[in-house]
């Protein structure tokens, strides 16, 4: 089955600890994205990567870090510097080309992070 | 970052009614997308639109890419309980690698 997987579904962390969220895709997509969603809110872009070993900050990158060592994987680390990390985190991917159908992003099932 | 103006923010309807929601932008978009999100899940793509004026259906759902390229609407006919959720519009500017999202429309259906 082709798709995007995120693990774990629920994650609990103590304040002051770093935590890494996993995102894997087998769609052969070049571009991958991380979004944050707060209750009753829309999606805000954290980081995105268009190709392996390259990534760009989104609108709310402070307190987060990413890596893109493999095409199919784009892990997100929530660091202790993130002031309010409790949220629902969504990973997405799309083809690398620009315009037309290549603009369409597909989402994973999400990870709910709770800081205790 | 830039956002789309999506309306209404919420809708409370009776089962069987038709639903209409829309998104507008001050910028010209190359692509319009409509997603549905169930509680605790990721958004699922409903309809993708790639040409101005395009009208596309997916079962009881119909969406249109506005002629001005600055708006799009989504209609749901004969609503059923499983239509409950949050509907998001998203647009892509020409040459951009990022999507711009609306704030969502929360649909609630009374049986």
Structural commentary:
- The complex is a heterodimer of chains A (116) and B (111).
- Chain A is mostly beta strands and 116 residues long.
- Chain A has strands at residues 4-7, 10-13, 19-25, 31-37, 43-51, 54-57, 64-66, 76-78, 87-94, 106-107, 111-115.
- In chain A, the strands form two sheets. In chain A, strands 2, 4, 5, 6, 9, 10 and 11 form a seven-stranded mixed beta sheet that branches.
- Chain B has no helices and eleven strands.
- Chain B is mostly beta strands and 111 residues long.
- Chain B has strands at 5-7, 10-14, 19-24, 31-37, 44-49, 55-58, 61-65, 71-76, 85-92, 99-101, 105-110.
- The chains are: A mainly beta (116), B mainly beta (111).
- Chain A binds chain B through residues 4, 6, 31, 33, 41-45, 48, 50, 58-59, 88, 90, 98-101, 103-110, 112, and chain B through 1, 3, 30-31, 33, 35, 40-45, 48, 50, 88, 90, 92, 94-99, 101-104.
Structure summary:
Chain A has 116 residues and is mostly beta strands.
Features:
heterodimer; A: 116 residues; mainly beta; four-stranded antiparallel beta sheet; B: mainly beta; five-stranded antiparallel beta sheet; 11 strands
Write the layout of secondary structure elements.
The complex is a heterodimer of chains A (116) and B (111).
Chain A (H helix, E strand, L loop, with lengths): L3 E4 L2 E4 L5 E7 L5 E7 L5 E9 L2 E4 L6 E3 L9 E3 L8 E8 L11 E2 L3 E5 L1
Parallel strand pairs in A: 2-11
Antiparallel strand pairs in A: 1-3, 3-8, 4-5, 4-9, 5-6, 7-8, 9-10, 9-11
Chain B lengths: L4 E3 L2 E5 L4 E6 L6 E7 L6 E6 L5 E4 L2 E5 L5 E6 L8 E8 L6 E3 L3 E6 L1
Parallel strand pairs in B: 2-11
Antiparallel strand pairs in B: 1-3, 3-8, 4-5, 4-9, 6-7, 7-8, 9-10, 9-11
């Amino acid at each position: 089955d082709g798709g995007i997987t995120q693990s774990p579904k629920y994650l609990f962390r103590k304040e002051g600890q770093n935590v890494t969220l996993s995102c894997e895709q087998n769609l052969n997509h070049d571009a991958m994205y991380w979004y944050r969603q707060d209750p009753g809110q829309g999606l805000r872009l954290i980081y995105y990567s268009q190709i392996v070993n390259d990534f760009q900050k989104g609108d709310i990158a402070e307190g987060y870090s990413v890596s893109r060592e493999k095409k199919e994987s784009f892990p997100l680390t929530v660091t202790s510097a993130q002031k309010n990390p409790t949220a629902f985190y969504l990973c997405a991917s799309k083809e690398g080309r620009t315009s037309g159908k290549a603009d369409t992003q597909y989402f994973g099932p999400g990870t709910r992070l709770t800081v205790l | 970052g830039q956002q789309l103006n999506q309306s209404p923010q919420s809708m409370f309807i009776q089962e069987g009614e038709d639903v209409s929601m829309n998104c507008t932008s001050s910028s010209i978009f190359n692509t319009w997308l409509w997603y549905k999100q169930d509680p605790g899940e990721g958004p699922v793509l409903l309809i993708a639109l790639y040409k101005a004026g395009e009208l596309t259906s997916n079962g009881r759902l119909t969406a249109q890419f506005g002629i001005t390229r600055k708006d799009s609407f989504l209609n749901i006919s004969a609503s059923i309980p499983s239509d409950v959720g949050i509907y998001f519009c998203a647009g892509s500017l020409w040459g951009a690698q990022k999507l711009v999202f609306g704030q969502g429309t929360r649909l609630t259906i009374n049986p």
